[in-house]
Amino acid sequence: MPAIVLIGAQWGDEGKGKATDLLGPRVDYVVKFNGGNNAGHTVVVGDEKYALHLLPSGILTPGVTPIIANGVVVDIEVLFDELTALSSRGVDVSKLRISANAHVITQYHRTLDKVTERFLGKRQIGTTGRGIGPAYADKINRVGIRMQDLFDENILRQKVEGALDQKNHLLLKIYNRRAIGVDEIVDDLLSYADRLRPMVTDTALLLHQALDAGDTVLFEGGQATMLDVDHGTYPFVTSSNATSGGAVTGSGIAPNRIDRVIAVVKAYTTRVGAGPFPTELFDESGEFLRAKGFEFGTTTGRPRRCGWYDAPIARFTARINGVTDFVLTKLDVLTGLETIPVCVAYDVDGERFDELPVNQSDFHHATPIYEEFPGWSEDITGARTFDDLPKAAQDYVLAIEAMSGARISAIGVGPGRDAIVVRHDLLD
C-alpha cells in the first residue's frame, strides 16, 4: 500500500483539507510534516465546518491515526485548545501521536516574531506572528526545545536558560521590551508534560512499521510550494520545506517509500502576505474572486490577494515535487464569468519567460501573458462526473491540465464534502 504526499501547488489556501478528507476513508495514517499553527485547513463535514490550524485534517476521519511529525513546530497551548474544541464536538482525538523530536514554540518565540516584524517596517515579510520562524531559527541554531525535553526538567531548564541568554539581550537592548524569566517559561511548559506524555513517541518508527504492515500513509504538507523556504518566493516564504521533499526530512521516512505526490491547486490563484504575485488583480475581478470564493485566511482572517490561474507556477510545482496528480479546487467560483484569463507565460522587460524566472527580481517585475477562455453561467455545484460539467468548464479544465505538467484527477465544485468530480483514482 502507498505512501502519499499531499502538498499545495501555489501559495497556500488551495483546499488541501478537502483533498485529505477525500482520501481519508482509504487512509490509515495522516501525517503533518512541516509548519505550525500559521496556516489553516477548513474542512466541511455535512453541516459542520471545522477550522484546523495545527492538527492534521485526517483527525476528522474515524479510524485514522493522526501524526504530528518531527518537522512541525508545536505551540502546545494551541494544540490543546484545538483538541478540546474537537472533543467538545464529538471528534475522537485519542489516537493523535506527536514526534518526540518535534520542536516547541514558546512564549519568547511569539514575542520575538511580533516585535521583529514590526521592527522591519516596510520590509515586513507578512508573518502571522505566531512564533513559527523564531522556533525554526532556534532549531537550526541548535538551541531549540523539543517535545522530549518536557519530560526532563533539568534538561529543559538548561535549554531555556541557554536560549534566553541571547534573546533577553535582544528584547531589552534592541526592542526595548522586558526580559523573560526562565521560571516563567519552564513552569508553563512543564504544566503540559503529563497530558502530552501518552501522545509523544518515536513517530518515524511508527510510520515505518505502518508502511511495512501495508497501511496507507498520507503526508499532509502545510502552506505550499511557493512558500517553501528553499524553492518559494524567498524571502516571502514560510520557514520550512512545504514541498514533497519535506515529507522525507519532516517525518523520517525514506524517499523510496513515497508512491504518489498529489498537489492541490485552485482554479485561480491567491496569496496572503507580502511578496511577488504576477497575476494579482486590483479590480472588480479580484473582488469577485475574493467575495465568491470567501478568500479570507482560516488562521488570521486576513483578506487574500486574488489573481488568475498561473500555469508556469503549476508546471514549476509539478517539476519540483514530482507531482503525479493535481486536485483542482474551487472551479465553481469561476461560474458567472464571461471570459476567464489564464497566465501562460511572463513578459519581463520585453523578454518572454515560459517558466519561472530564476532571478527573483525578474519574477517580481513579471507581467503575465494571458490566454482567455470562455466562461459558463450554469450552476456546477451538483456535478459529480466530468460529463456533468458545462462544455466551457470542461474545456477550461482540459486546457489548464495540458499546461500544468500532470493530470487533473479530481475537481472541487463546491464547499461540501461530496462536492467533487473524480476523473482518476488518486490511489491508482
Task: Outline the structure in words.
This protein is α/β, with parallel strands linked by helices and about 425 residues long. The protein has three domains: about 5-100 and about 200-260, Adenylosuccinate Synthetase, Chain A, domain 1 (3-Layer(aba) Sandwich); about 105-195, Adenylosuccinate Synthetase, subunit A, domain 2 (Orthogonal Bundle); about 265-420, Adenylosuccinate Synthetase, Chain A, domain 3, CATH 3.90.170. It is about 30% helix and about 20% strand. The chain has 13 helices and 20 strands. It has helices spanning about 15-25, 75-90, 105-120, 130-140, 155-175, 180-190, 195, 205-210, 245-250, 285-290, 310-320, 360-365, 390-405, and strands at about 5-10, 30, 40-45, 50, 65-70, 75, 95-100, 105, 200, 215-220, 260-265, 270, 305, 310, 325-330, 340-350, 350-355, 365-375, 405-410, 420. The strands form five sheets. A ten-stranded mixed sheet has the order 9-7-5-2-10-1-11-15-19-20, with helices on both faces. Strands 14, 16, 17 and 18 form a four-stranded mixed sheet that branches. A two-stranded antiparallel ribbon has the order 3-4. The protein starts with a strand and ends in a 6-residue tail after the last strand.
